[in-house]
Amino acid sequence: MTKAYKTLETRFRRMNVLSDIGSMLHWDMAAIMPDGGADARSEQLATLDVMENELINAADLGDLIEDAGNEGLDEWQLANLGEMKRAWVHGTAVPAELVEKMSLAETRCEVAWRSARADNDFKGLLPKLQEVLDLSIEAGHAKAAALGTSVYDALLDQYDPMMRSDRIDSLFSDLEDFLPSYTAEVIERQKSEDAPVAPTGPFPVEIQNSVGLDLMKAVGFDFDHGRLDISHHPFCGGIPDDVRITTRYDENDFTSAIMGVLHETGHAMYERGLPSDWRGQLVGKARGMTMHESQSLLVEMQACRSEEFLTYAGPMFEKAFGGNADAWDASNLHRLYTRVEPGLIRVDADEVTYPAHVILRYRLERALIEGDMKLADLPGAWNELMQKLLGITPPDDRNGCLQDIHWPSGAWGYFPTYTLGAMAAAQIFAAAKEACPDIPGALAQGNFGPLMGWLGQNIHSQASSRSTDDILDAATGKVLGIDAFKSHIINRYGQ
Question: If you ran DSSP here, which 8-state letter would residue 298 be given?
């Protein structure tokens, strides 16, 4: 191993440890920290962020990156060096003072969001959210200058390397050409069909949790390296060797929590499947949030809403919850989980209407970042666009613009990756089934081994060694596009 590259690996491993500590503190903040700890936690996280920023701004780091490029590195080392350079460009663009301000503001706003949502108090959250937005825009301008992009694209690049808004516009435009009329057709067709039998509650949290744990085991989750908890907003956090996932429960409806657990388990399996030989290096991390969301949506939407999987899950649900046996029949559960109906809450949306939720957020956050809309006008703009895209209007901000944690936590530019991930998930699942025709039958037995084996080899193990498009092209024969998602929707919901 060469001198400059070896030095870089050591430095970036140290940065990774700091980031890992921050991830665990974020999980604690979301899952068990009392609200009164917010100020102290803000300072802790800000200190870690500043320390990481200082390391990446070391005076010799740019020279080390340049020197390492001439040291005859192998393929993975070269890919790692590319990721180091990208991180260096992002990191050196933003001064430590701004990094600290952002971290403090985001943590305080995220904690304040909990009560603001519960109290339906957008005006109360507005000053803190405005500060987060202003600081994000300031950082976006600095990164845009370094990357040679628009401000929004600079923020997007943090979550999906090399993805740009013009490509998103094209992909989303293709979706909008197809989905509205198709959605209306499906809804109308389902009206003429027998409504699915709804399982009757209540569904005690303890039992939902137990079922969720059993399903995680079926997917392949390793409880020696992770756990399931409760939070205000479901998420997957922690680190690859200690993955922390959360969900939230409703005793009147088990469907949301169970699918939330499976969604986050998809994220966790990706993290656990990343190559252990490259732990602590950027090339060993997930490729980006489009790929990350593809893995969660593949498990939740592609695999676990299939009739094959529900054949396995139905008896498990019946044993756990009891009630009308007809409700737990696989065909009935499939109709229940494929019922298309516009709703207010993104995380509870069916897969046909889900893209509209994402397009709404993409348009609004881009308008806010680019200065085309004032934050104070967000509730009205949200409600207007929700009516336009989904035909419904939220009765309050709690079920409207306050429902997601992303903006309060500073994650501007994240939302498009959900629908980009759904497109990628459809491509990947179709390719996996073509390569391993026994996957559907295995899912009917609760056996995720064939699916996870294929994903491990073709997706998880690739980490950030190549671009998203290159990984997809190698695994599926195509770069990211809409065709597989469209085919999946038509096959599942009919013509």
Answer: I
